[in-house]
Fold this protein.
Amino acid sequence: MIKLLHVIAIGALVSSAVYAYSIKYETTLATEHLKKLKSKTQRERDAIAVLKAEWQFLNRPDRVQMLAERHLDLQPFVVTQVVKPSDIPNRGPKVDAIGRKLEDLGLGLPTETPRTTKAGATTPGAMP
């Protein structure tokens, strides 16, 4: 009986050692994966910083002005280009094509509905 308990205890000890080793291995693997992710994140942040610096370099006002003068045929602003709101012609009324067709057919008018029921009129199935 004691030998059986010794075998069970040794088996439990070996299985707990295997379990502890597997946990240690998984933890080490997760730590390495985390380190790789952190380094990749840092590389991406550095790349974003470089791209932002390049964008700021390319969007310098003096460079944009030089490119606009070279590639665009822009004219200087003249005061006569400004108009008053009163100089703009009024817009015509909004036209609803479907509404106009319905009015032409005589269907655009509102329908008449009975506002009060007549004293002698009853609805079908109503009890007097």
Observations:
- The mean pLDDT is 85.
- Residues 79 and 87 are 15 Å apart (CA to CA).
